Amino acid sequence: MTWDYFVFIADTIENINNTQEISVSFECLASGFVDEVSLRFFLGGDKERARKNYIDKARKSDTKNQKCDFLSGVVPDFSHLPSLNWIGLQVDFELLTPWYSKDDRVFHVLDNPVRKDRVFGVPFMAASSWKGMLRWACRMRNGLREHLERHNNRLDNWRDPDWILHLFGNEKEEKENFRQGALVFYPTWFNKIGFEVINPHSRERRAGTQPIYYEVVPEIRPNEEGGKGTLSLLYAPWPGMKFSADSTKFSADPKEVLPKLLEAIEYLLTVYGISAKRTVGWGTAKITEWRAFHKDGGEVKESDRGALWKKVQTWLSVGGTP
Questions:
Q1: Can you tell me the mean pLDDT for 17-27?
Q2: Distance between alpha carbon 158 and the CA centroid of its chain, in Å?
Q3: For the chain, which terminal residue's Cβ has fewer other Cβ atoms within 10 angstroms, N or C?
């Protein structure tokens, strides 16, 4: 069906005219404009004109993109949790450096398009990406960096501690001790689209060669807000859940696990980054608000991680052990 769709666009474009000017828009599909511009490039070969049309259209629509504004505000409703042991967490953040994750679209006029939701065409970060990055951040806070330095940047003999297994479960490579994690992750939609240009220079001529365009979620700029998003996750240990690796005792106490999780979230967003190209500093953010939800405790909001934890830990004695 995907290939039939592209053939339909190509046939339609050829029947309309043979120019690169956009005279028809496929408004019935969220990604119709992206695919139309991309196919115009493949049909006509004028990549610069096609790229310019795409960037101009994206910039004009960015200031009034109702879908971005709407979806970025859509977060899970944790106001009616069914168990006293469950805790919902939401962290609002604003980007300090660009966020980028490459789209998996078959055709695109840009070499580096940002990942977008296929239904609405809005930039988003998948729940699976959050899980992988947050697990890595927890490992870093638990000594992974020192382990890699001792083992020539290899994970040889690395073993996740009980609290990480409790939160995330076992790795896919595990063949015997299967464990389900206590965390449930949700995707994040961003509210803006922007562009970055990297201009490599020739060492001989010391002049720019070929600019590389990146479609990104933009950072804070002078007189302009950065892209905003919300990390949402649910701490939901299932009944009878054993917290230790040998399943003989409850060694991963939620009162010890959750503050480590909150610390890892803060470091992931503010220090490590959540974007591709993190090694050059992309994907860092400032946290604007912490929120937590509980069946009896309701909702609490704080601007500081420590203040939030002081309120959350009072809920754990009420909920007891799963």
A1: 47
A2: 26
A3: N
